[in-house]
């Protein structure tokens, strides 16, 4: 197909007409499909970890643990949750520069920072919760095995998290590299 | 400019957003999500749109930026026959649909930056405008376009 034919074909593509009311809905954050999914996930995590904290402080003898163990538990759970809220805000920001190249560069930089912090905070969360449960208890072989199994269960999501971030950053980096090819 | 002006500008220019969605996403659901994401991003960046550049240039930049940078949902890759009769988002009463789909599928075989370049070229933007939107040199626009045209002519026969 010659270039003029390609152009003609492009121009002849029929597109639907969306009315003003529906377009207006699309500008509202609440009706955004991806953001509403993230919000649901955030809410569930927030409820889940709040429940963990309540269970720890009411049913798991938190008063028998040291003040330090209690403080570590609260900090290691609260900071990742707050960081996730920041992540939600970040997920709305795609346009970060006057042109697509600089926008992608800025986005990759900010995603890398976010990914590293997110993984570090997840490690902190695992370590903090682990420290709380293990403080003041005597470790015997049975408990050690339980601890090993628990660690594997906690490390698997961490591995998946690293993989997701590596893939996201990798995809954007490839796009940027191809865009800047021959520059 | 007010929300009303913004919406009427989007309504007037929604054809190009639909076309961008069709060259960047495979399924109608993903295209619908991307369309909404583009409108959302345009609305968010609208206050910073000074009017210094043409509204169409700003629209192309935000729409293409969103298409290449937004995350895709992991949907199962299910191939079905055409759209359900009650789905109105994409035009199903188009008798040239098959040929157009073949043409768009050809463009979708290009890399993501190449799709942006060819879309802007087919929209008849100048090399200077394309370079400004993408943030690359005019010379590079020319080099890339020559390569893409040859590739596309082979894909779309």
UniProtKB/TrEMBL annotation, chain A:
Superkingdom, natural source: Bacteria
Listed transmembrane segments: 42-60, 66-86, 114-133, 145-162
Keywords from the named record: Membrane, Transmembrane, Transmembrane helix
Designated name of the protein: DUF3278 domain-containing protein
Source organism of this protein record: Mucilaginibacter myungsuensis
TrEMBL record, chain B:
Residue ranges crossing the lipid bilayer per the database entry: none
One Pfam family, short name: Sigma70_r2
Superkingdom per UniProt: Bacteria
Record's keyword terms, sorted: Sigma factor, Transcription, Transcription regulation
Limits of the RNA polymerase sigma factor 70 region 4 type domain: 101-152
Gene Ontology MF: a single term: DNA binding
GO aspect biological process, one term: DNA-templated transcription initiation
Domain RNA polymerase sigma-70 region: 9-75
Similarity-based family: Belongs to the sigma-70 factor family. ECF subfamily.
Protein name per its UniProtKB record: Sigma-70 family RNA polymerase sigma factor
Organism this protein belongs to: Mucilaginibacter myungsuensis
């Amino acid at each position: 197909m010659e270039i003029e034919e390609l152009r003609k074909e492009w121009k002849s593509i029929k597109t639907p007409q969306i009315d003003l009311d529906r377009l207006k809905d699309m500008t509202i954050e609440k009706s955004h499909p991806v953001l509403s999914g993230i919000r649901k996930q955030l809410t569930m995590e927030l409820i889940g970890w709040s429940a963990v904290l309540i269970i720890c402080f009411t049913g798991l003898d938190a008063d028998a643990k040291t003040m330090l163990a209690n403080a570590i538990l609260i900090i290691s759970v609260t900071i990742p949750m707050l960081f996730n809220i920041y992540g939600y805000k970040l997920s709305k920001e795609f346009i970060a520069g006057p042109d697509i190249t600089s926008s992608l560069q800025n986005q990759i930089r900010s995603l890398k920072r976010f990914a590293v912090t997110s993984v570090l905070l997840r490690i902190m969360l695992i370590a903090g919760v682990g420290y709380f449960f293990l403080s003041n208890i005597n470790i015997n072989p049975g408990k050690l095995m339980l601890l090993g199994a628990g660690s594997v269960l906690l490390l698997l999501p961490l591995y998946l998290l690293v993989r997701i971030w590596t893939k996201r950053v990798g995809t954007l980096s490839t796009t940027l590299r191809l865009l800047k090819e021959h520059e | 400019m007010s929300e009303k002006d913004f919406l009427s500008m989007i309504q007037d220019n929604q054809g190009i957003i639909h076309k961008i969605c069709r060259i960047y996403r495979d399924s109608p659901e993903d295209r619908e999500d991307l369309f909404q994401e583009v409108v959302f991003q345009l609305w968010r960046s609208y206050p910073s749109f000074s009017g210094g550049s043409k509204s169409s240039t700003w629209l192309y930049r935000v729409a293409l930026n969103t298409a290449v940078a937004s995350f895709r949902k992991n949907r199962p890759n299910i191939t079905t026959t055409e759209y359900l009769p009650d789905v109105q988002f994409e035009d199903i009463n188009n008798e040239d649909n098959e040929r157009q789909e073949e043409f768009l599928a050809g463009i979708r075989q290009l890399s993501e930056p190449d799709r942006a370049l060819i879309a802007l070229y087919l929209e008849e933007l100048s090399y200077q405008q394309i370079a400004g939107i993408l943030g690359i040199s005019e010379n590079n626009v020319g080099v890339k376009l020559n390569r893409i045209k040859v590739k596309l002519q082979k894909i779309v026969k």
